[in-house]
Every structure is written in C-alpha cells, then in structure tokens.
Amino acid sequence: MDDDLRVVGKRVAAVDAYQKVTGTAEYCTNISLPGMLVGKVLRSPHAHARVVKVDGSKAEVLSGVKAIVTHQDVPRKVFTYNVMTYQLPQGELQDMHLFDHKARYIGDPVAAVAAVNEEIANEALRLIDVEYEPLPAVFTVDEAVKPGAPVVHDFAENNTPVPPTPVFCYGQDVEELFKEADAIAEGTFSTSKQIQAGLEPACSVAHFHDGRLTVWSQIQLPHMARKMLAYLFDLPESKVRLIQPFAGTGFGAGTDLCCEPYACALAIKAGAPVKVLYSRSEDFANRITREHICKIEMKIGVRKDGAPLALKAKYTGDAGAYMCKAASGCGVALASNITEYKFESMYQEIEAIYTNHVACGAMRGFGGVQSSFARESLIDEVCEKIGMDPIEFRLKYHRNVGELGWFPTTQISSCGLDECLRAGAETIGWYEKKALPKNGVRRRGLGVACMAWLSGAQPMLLEHSNAILKFNEDGGCSLFVSPGNMGQGILGTLAQIAAEVLGLEYRDINLIYGDTDLTGFDIGTHASRGLYCIGRAVKKAAEDARAQILERASAILDAPADQLDIKDRKVFVKNEPERSALLSQISNACIYDYQKGCRQIVAHATVDPAEFAPPWQAGFAEVEVDTQTGVVEVIRWITVHDVGRAINPQVVEGQLEGGTAQGIGFALYEDTQIIHGKLLTDGFDKYRIPSMLDLPEHETVLVEQGDPTGPFGAKSVGESGLFLQVPAIANAIYDAVGVRIRDLPMSPERILKALKEKTAP
Amino acid sequence: MILPGFEYRKAASVAEAIAFYNDFQGKARYLAGGTDLMPLLKYRLSTPAAVVDLKGIQELGAISADHGWLTIGANVTLFDLKNDPVVKEYFPVLCQSLEATSCETLQMRGTIGGNLLQDTRCIEYNKTMEWRTARGFCLKMGGETCNVVPHSRICLSNYCSDNALSLIALSAEVSLAGPEGDKTTGLEKIFSGCGSRVFALGPGEILTRIRIPMEKSRGVYEKLRVRNSIDYPLAAVAVAMRQNGARVCVGGVGPAPRVYDLTGTDAGSVRDGAQKAYTDARAVPNSTLSPTYRRKMVRALFRRAVNKILSEGK
Amino acid sequence: MFFRALRHFEFFEPKTVAEANELLLSYGHQASVMAGGLSLIQTMKTGEKKPEAVISLQKIDSLKFIDSDNDQDLKIGALATIRSIEKSREVQKHWAVLVQTARCIGSVEVRRMGTVVGNLCDGTPASDLATILIAMGAKMRVTSSGAEREVPLENFCVGPHQTVLEEGEMVREVRVPSLGDHSFASYVNLARTKPDITKVSVGVLVKNQNGACGDVRIAVGAVAPVIVRVRKAEELLRGEKLKASTIEEAARLAQEDVVVRPITDIRSNAGYRKEMVRVLVERALTDVVDKMNGAHAH
Amino acid sequence: MRRIVCTFVVNGVTRELLVETNALLSEVLQDDLGLKGVHVGCGTGDCGACTVLVDGLPVLSCSTLAVTVRGKEITTVEGMANGTKLHPLQESFIEHGALQCGYCTPGMLLASKRLLEINPSPSRQDIKDALAGHLCRCTGYNKIVDAVMAAAEGEE
Lengths: 761, 314, 298, 156
Fold this sequence. Notes:
The structure holds four protein chains of four kinds. By secondary structure, chain A is an alpha+beta fold.
C-alpha cells in the first residue's frame, strides 16, 4: 500500500458537521415553504377490508381544506415502495396501488388530505366517509398457506408469491454429505422485525409547480425514487426533481418510499407545497421495517476435524401485505452464507408469504443478520460437539482470496479475517477467560462470531454510479455525487479520495449532492456500496481531472506530463521539484487563457463494478447472565473489522459503533410486537432502542488489508457493524449458562424459560 | 424599508379619533387608506408618536344624496366612488380624475379623504433619510433653503391629487371636525399655498365629508404624465361645465390648485383663461419634466379640456 | 400556527390552592390538573383526555416544597419535582431509598419536569415511586373547596389510572413517615432497558425490633391493576429474624399471594412477572438485611 | 383564555408572541420562530431530541406548553455559539465525530452544556446518567461521551 497518503487515512471532520451542531442543517421535518399545507393520510382501521366507498365531499367543503385525494384522483397504476426494483433486469414483483380498493393491513392508506393547518387536516380526516366491508384477515405464515385462508392478493395462490425456491446452491446433494458428517447441528431460529427507528420521523414535502414536481425526501436512492414517482404520476423523469436534505433516518428505511407518494398526490391536486409528516407511532406502524424473514431453519454438518461439509437452510418470510423486498431480502440472506466457510455443498431455499401485516423493507445488514444468527450459532454447536475451539474453527475453515464469493460468479479479492480473529481474541482475553469456572447467581461467558459481507450488491444488482469534478479558477473544485446522505460520513470520505488524487486539501473539495437535477445518475446508498462504488467513480473522475491538469501544466512547465506530479496544490517536475506551478495558476489559465484557448477542467466518470470486495469481521462479546432473572448484561463488546482501508478512521469507527448499538438492541431489547395486525410497540417508550446506560463500553479495532479493487484499498463498512452482536451474544449466553436462545430478542423472559427447561428433569 | 416604531390606535368615531389625537399631544397622524402615509413613514418623512386609524369609523364610509347635495364620507375608497352611479351620471370629470388616479389596486385601498389630504411631492423630498441627509435638509424638511431653487424662501413642491382638481371644479365643499369644533368650507380654501405646510387646517382636524351640489355637469379631466398608469400628475386640468358656466381647476404644478371661472365659452375666453393659467403656473425643476414644458402643458391641457367639452358635448 | 398537536382548551394559572379548588369545582370533570404536565400532555396528544380546561398549578408557589421538620415526616408538595427529591440533602440523608428509586425513572429531563405527586396521581401500577412509598406508608393530602382529607397512598388508586379523587379534588402534598434509626427500606425493579418503564418492582420497609422484624410492609408494582401489598409474606416475617430461609419462604409466599395477578403485555409476560416477585422480594429483603447489618456496624 | 401574549427571551433576544394555550414549546420554536435546530423525534418525551434550555435547564419542548414558560429564557442550539465562535462542546462534537445524522445533536449538546455547568469535570458515568434520556440511533454513543469528556477537559 502507498503510505505516502496525505488526506486518505486521516481523521477529518464531517463536511456537514458545522451545520448540524449549529442547528442550521435542514431536514425534511423542518422544511417550511411559503403557502405550504399540512398533508395527512387516512388509514384503514381494518387489517383486511374491501373499500366500498370513499366520499370526501363533507371534508372538501371544510374551510381550510385544499385537497382531498382518493383512488379517483390518481392514475391507477401498479407500483411498489421498493424503488430498488429498477436494479434488477426483470424488476421485483409490484403489487401496490396508491389508495387501492382493498385495505390489506391496519394503516393501509385510503385517502389523504391537505389543509392549511394540522387541526383542520385532522378534522377533514374525520369527515371523510369511508365504507369498509371487513374481510377475514390472516396474520401468520402458517395460517396464510392453509387451504381456505383469506386471500390477500388475488394473483397469489396460497398467499405465496415466492414458493420455496432454491437459490445459490452448489456442490453435491447435501443429504448425502450429512450422512458423512461426524457432527451435525440444526435448529429453527426466529427474529423480530427490527424497526430502523431513525430519530427523525418519516416526512416528505412535495411541490408541483409549472409542470415540475419537486420532492424533498429522506430517500437513500434519490434517482430511482424519482423514476418511481415519475411513473406513478405520469410525468417524464426530467420533470421530477428529488431533493434529499439532511436525513435524520436511514439504516435502510430510505430504500423504500414512505410518505412521498401521498405528499406528491396532494401537492399535484392542491397546486401548493404539501408537507406530510408522520407522527412517531404512524412512522413505526407504517414505515416498512426490516426485511421479512421471520424463520430460518438451518442444518450444518462437519467432519470430526471440523472440515465443513454441508449447509442446508430454509428461510421463510412473512412478507406482509405487499412484496416490496421480499424476494431480494431472502436472496441476499442466502448469498451472504456462501462467503464465510468452505462448505463443500450448500442448499438453501426461500419462501415468502403474504399476510395482513405492514410490508417489510430493508434494514442495515439486509438478510445477513438473520443468516449469521443461525449459522454462527450452529458453528458453535458443532465446535462443542467435536471439541474444537470456536476461534480455531473459524481460523481454519473460512474462505480466502481467490475462492468463491457471495455470488456464484464472484471471487474473494481480499481477506483479513485471520488478523481480525487473533486481534479480537487477544483484546478480550479469550483463552484466559474461557478457562474460568462458571458459578454463582451471575455468570459470565464469552462468545465469538464472524462474517463476510459485500461492498455493493453487484453483480446481483445494478450498481451504477457517476461522479463529476469541476475545477474553478482558484484550483478548488466541486464534486458532484449522489449518495444517500444520512450522515454516515460518505461525503467527506469521497472528498478525501478526490483531494488525495488531486494533491488538494480536504476542504478544497466543495460537495454538490442531494439533488437529482444537479448530479449524475447514482443508485444511491444501500448494500454498503457508497464508498466502494461511488468512491471508485470519484477516484476515476479525479484521475481524469489530474491528467487534464498535468497536460496543461506540461505546456506551462515545458516538461512531459508523465514527469509531473501534484502535491500541496502545486504541480512540479518530479526530479526537479523547484520547477513548479501553482494549481490555481493552471486552473486559472484553463478558464481565462486568451492565447492558448480556454477549456475548463471538468471530469466525469461512470462505474458499474463487477467485484464485491468483501469486508471481514469478527465480533466478541462478554456477557453476564443473572440466572435468577434472566437479565443479560453485555460487559464488553469488541468489533474487529477488516475494512481494507479506513479512508477516515473516525467515520469507520462511527459506522461500526453505531452498528454495534443497533446489533445489541436487536439481540436483547428491540421487539416489534403485533397483535391482530396492530403494532403494539409504536413508540420509543414501547419499542426500546438502547440508551447510553444500556450499552457496554464497546471497542472497535480496525484491520486494514487493502483490497486491490477498492479505492485506495477501501472496502465497505456501512452495514457490517451489526451482523455479529446477535450470534456472538447468543454464543456468550450459552458459554455462561448453557442455554441456546434461538428467538429474538433474547429477553430475560426467554432466557429464564430456557434455563428452567434445562434444569427440569 | 421598515416602519419606525409608533403606537397604534383604532378609532370607532370621529370624537374618539380626536381624543386619541389629544392623548398624544398632537404627535399623532391620522391614517385612512395609508397609500400616502405609509411611504412617508417608511422614508421617515413623518415620525409621529402615534397613528390613529380612521378606517373603523363607519359613519364616514357612506355616499348619500339628499337636500341637493351628494355627500361623500371621507372613508369612501376611490374605487367605490368611481363606480358610484350618481357620480357617473352627474360628475363625469370626477369619474375621469378617479380613473386617472394611480392604478385600480391603489384605488381600492386609497380613500377620498386621504387622497385630498395627501402631502405635496418633490423630486428632492420623497427620498430616503440617508439621501436627504447627504443632500442637506430643505425647507419642507425644516432646513434653511430649497434644494431645487437655491435661496428660495418658499417651498414649491407639487400638490398631486387628481381628485381635488375635479372636486374644486365641481365647487365641492368639505366638512372638518376638530378639537375646536366642526366647520364646512370650500375645498379650494383648505390650501395654505405653501408647500412646506400644505393645508390650512387646525391641529387635529379631520376631513369628514365632501359634498357636491347635485347638478348634472359635463366635464373633462386632462392629465400630463409619463406612463399611463400609476404616475402622479405633472400638470393637470379639470373642467366642469354647468348651466351657469364652466369652472376650471389647474393642479400638479405648485403646492395648491388654482381655480378659473370661465366668463364665456367662446374661443377668446378659452384662450385668455388658458393664458392666465400659463402665467400663474410657477413650475420649478422639482419633477421629471422640465418646468417650461409643464407650464406650456398647463396652457395646452386647459384649452384641450374645455374644447373637448364643447366639441363632444360632454 | 401550522402544526399543533393538541386541541384547544382554556388555560388557567391559579395563584393559590383555593383558587385552583374553585376552578376545579366549576369545571368539574371537564378540567385537568397539570403539575409538570408530562403525562397530561401525552394523554392529550393521543386524545385519551380532551379537557375543556387545563388548570396549571405551576404558579402556586405554596406547593413548591420539600419539608421535613427535624427528621419528622417528609412532606412533598404537589409541585416538587422528582429531580428535587433526588437533589435534596435532607432526602439524601434520611430517605436515601427515595433517591435511588427516583433514579430508576426515565431520564434527567423527565425527572426534572415531572413531579412526585403527578407521578402518584397518574395512577400507573408500574410507578416506581408509588411502590416504595406504599411500602413506606405514605399518605396523600387531598384538598377540595372547603375540605381536606388524608388518603393512605395504598388506597389511593382503585384501578389503572383511576384514583379515589372526586370531582373538584386535588392532591396538595404527599407525606412520608420518618424512617428513624430503626426502619430500613429497599427498592428493586426490573425494566427492559434502563430508562424504560418498570416491568416488576418491589419496595419493602422493615422496622428492626431488637434484631427481629417489627412492622414490615412489602409493596409489589406492575403485577396487578394497582400496586399491591403481599400480606401473607408480611405476616410471616413479623416478629421473625431475617434469616436466609425465612426470606426465601416469604418471597415464595409473596409470589403465590392472590393479589399478584400480572398480565402479559409488551414489556413482559405474566409468568415471568409472577416469578420475579419472588426473586425481587428476596433481593429487597436481603438488601434490607445488609443495610441493618451496616447500620449495626456503625 | 385561549391565547396569551407571551414574552420569551429566545437565545438572548426578547420575542413577544400571541400564543395559543394549546401550542407546545417545540411548535412555537419551530413554526412561529423558524428555529430549525429544534428537532422533534417522538413527541412523547422518550427520545430527548427536542430538548431546549429553559432558564438554563434542559426541558423537553415537545411536552411543554409554551405559555407555561413565558417570561423565561430559552436557549436552543442556535444560541450556543457566540457569533461564529462555536461553543467548546460544538467544537468537540465536530472533532470527535460525535454526530452522524445530526438529528439528536441539538438535544445532546444542550443537555451536555447544562451538565458541564454544574459538573465541570464529569466521569463517563456522569455523562451517561445525564444523557440517558437522549437517544441516538447512529453513533452507538461512544463518541458522544468522548466529545463531552474532551470538552470538559478543555474547559479546565
């Protein structure tokens, strides 16, 4: 690796932090436009009902009501909240209508109103006369597939849009290999639908003006959201402008539409800007949550020396009322199982079933969280059976460079897992503590888990990114990019890459982003792709700009371009550094040169990567279990992560530490409870995300095994911070008290129950 | 530009308005439509301690015809007055001058009382505080001299109400109410003739009503301006012809309108009248057109207006 | 002007208790009394309460007090915040268990805005303060126009969010008996996360009578529609020395007491709650023993 | 009374407003005064994002009637910096990467400000106790505690 880096690898402040600490940052929730109206959605109180009649006439005449939209006011089109559908050549199944004739979950929108203030909007909602014909509803996958079950969508037989389908299988018959196995572990795991729970509630502002629709949205995928909204309202894409202000949410929540279609429909009808702001309970109950996988049945078999033979798994998903990411969510869950270990053979299938629940979307660690819970728990079990240390097993049997990666056509391009496992084991004192006896009311235990992920979902999904660099006369430049900016630190990181290549300072790069009118096309941010994919585009554009600068400088310095270099805002001849020209001089000449002709330096680069550059990670938990109450306290958590290259170590740590909090929350506290289709945990008082007092001191150790395909060797870090808390804590609980918890969250109630079952004769 | 700070009072009756005026020891200005007062306040040309709003005085909002007079409350807007059927039928000159006043938006806001009591204007006067300070205060601002005509001892800023001219031509009278009591006088008599203190009104007096003798008239209003809308008159002539003769009123030049009763309608009388008006007009370079031209135009508009009535039978 | 989560209401800020009482009387059940406002505003947001009038006590200075005359009863005025209990030197010194209990509640902001009396009047069976205060024998002083009465806190709630307060009545203060040198109290609770609402809690008070249990009161929170006392366990302990086996037996009796009728909700399930009554009673009593021994050692 | 003329001293400036009795402090600060640094996360007092200082004390603006704090000094995050000179806590939050999406940041900063005023050299546990009511979904809190610690050390 090139160690002569000046900007890359440095801890620099986030480009937008100043605005955020001074309260000047603009979020969707605090946008205020002249003449703006309050938009509200009228929702079905029934989990399943035919909407016989929607009559807004009484509400319409209420003074201050500016628009009422029902199914009569919008083009009847099949669509989906899941704008990622455009990343697959055949798309994902679309099964939604804006205000359908049938409500399929409690909260399904049937109408919306825009009024001059909230009070009138609420009153108008009350005055809309809706006649429902309630239908029997179905809330579990088991009920949904029974003959005679209520039909959620007419086209889906047995409520099964995705019947059990084998995906990404390889090797010989797994059943044959299980016969050869010396140790087998199997189990059924269940997870809850984690809520992304960004602090900013769902909000969107739309304005239809002069034939153009402008939408302020928290979306992470601005360009594809633009495409979907254009389609939905019969507008060309160029007539739709998507602006992404600062977003106080994300974590996958922004990969699906939420209130945008309703804000747009109202704005088009009212001819005035409309803000749709969900209350916290409306947000939790209607924003589509973590992918739908609710049940994982997995079986693994190994030889007595640990050699992994076969893995068989089935993922069953409660898709809810609409498909959204049901298919791709399962797919990623399966694919992410391939990379970690050298199983000779793998057979996995997926199934998705409709119920009358709110649909599911995506959350950080898409599918991989669920599969790692099952896989890493079972690995520990077989290790125990064959008497092998779990770290030993992982060191010995993980895949390595050149081997098969997550997707059948990809290869692993780098792997730092050995170092991750060793560093983590040492930091937590694995071997010393493992040897300690367990007794008393409160017992301690250690757990480990590991994982490989990806840096963008190529080649399964289209991962097209563009970057444009424009030089000003002073040598500073503007970088036009379009990631989903949720504060994860991607903007500054991209600026660092450009600055490094161009011999500029970090602050010389002025970022232009968050507006589809200004930037080139980009898929946006999902699947940990931001740094790897957009970073590659930025690096390529910067290299192009650099070549243009050197070419121009070559004439000025009278030296061949290949003998020139840029550093500290200066171009110089490599072996005669005193022969130099300021970058500002050169850029100025490019713009104001009367003799040699003007040509401003503008560089554009497109990328559509084919490699997947897996980041590797090991997680270590030390827990204390209260055997009388079942309460688990995480004493210490260590994340060790092979990030390839930490472009900004502070940002990388931030991502991993944030992931840790969400992972511990998912493991122990976060429990989405739905009864008869009604979300009970619809607020921060009921759905508990960890507070400062609930997290242990947690540490992050970075391993930098540069990936040859990544920008400056960098791999992703966006999602992988939260894969391992669940399995590592589960393994640590087993280590402490000898019970295997296979349902999330691992609540005191569940642990105590397991402890009792264990001691029962 | 922002308004200076002041107290605000809204009066429900004329008496209450006068009481408010007294409460502030006379450091109050009356507000009607505000189209004249607001710019004056913003420019700090007037800095009253209080503004007394007259718009709430219902009794001043009516137009009534009885006892041989058309009585117009001071709060009647120019727009409503313009569309009044009696005005249309009886007083075409007033109709025309109302139509020529600024633009419809302002006609809807401005009242007839406020229009009559508008301040005089000068190219050196209606300017920002900073501009005026840099230039030096003139007579109208309490300074020593005139910035238009050096050494002049009298302010010749221009009185720009279109409707005062037609009302004077129609021999209108105005009622005034004040701390000292009520009175009625000919409209032409309320002018002091001096631009720095335009009106000869007592302190706290309110113009409450205007009345016009109910006699059908023919009339023409001729106005010199650069644009066909919004502009104040740079010179203007109103003519009202009744059975007992024609009355002409000239304005837009100098601080007070001038009245001419035509002795006859023959060409000679008209020419003489026009020449007299030309001679009387004391135009100085205080507007956007040259004084010589404006004076000539007084004469020309005078003749044109009278002749229009005669030829068209208006 | 644009976003307003609450409906309109008349707002009153009486300056005296008498004024407040009059307002309460004239508005009757259409009025809501507001002290800190935290829970009232939430219930108004959800529409559970739609008062015509909100009567804020915040301007009644005579209700802002924490008094204890020389180690006598602790009197907590209706406007004393939970935070002020935490910060009071007197309370820290003589009623330390209240400080410890207060810290189980939400966040610093919530404790600063919320009042002790407001917390008790909210009438939730999960109230940390109510659980320990019932064990300590606290009494509510209730006033109405022209009358005052005292209600033991343990009789104050008759159901979830239902109190014995009648139309026109409000609570002026809560009185907590002095612990003296011979009484020892302990509070233990379980919650999903640290700032979360308690899922089970136990408060105990034991009077040390020559090394044995004198009077004893055990209150259990969040296991019934109201906070309950487990009297069988109390009876067992009375007059006994607090040996491990006695404590264990008392804890078992507490769990089996008929008043312990927990429900399953989002925070926990009935079976777990019931079982935790035993564990927590045992822990609270053990803590009391430790405190007694500690005091003895002094 | 359904509307009350209220005077607030907001970030050092006296503001007189006609406030409906049902208006929450957060709504008045956001809607009527246009302060974008007031963020409401839950509306139920469970996330702390909406925290502002009332007479120097952290208060949940989403659960406070505006009329009840009339006459008081209100500080929002916009009032923390002195002109272009940031408050040491603001500097420290930037330097330590103690924010990501930034939505919880104003509340965190204001509560920390109060903490350092009464406890200039807090322990990590003191900081966690003081900020326990402030949820953050992005950072995992480590860097927030680091930033407050560093600001406290810097002030000494």
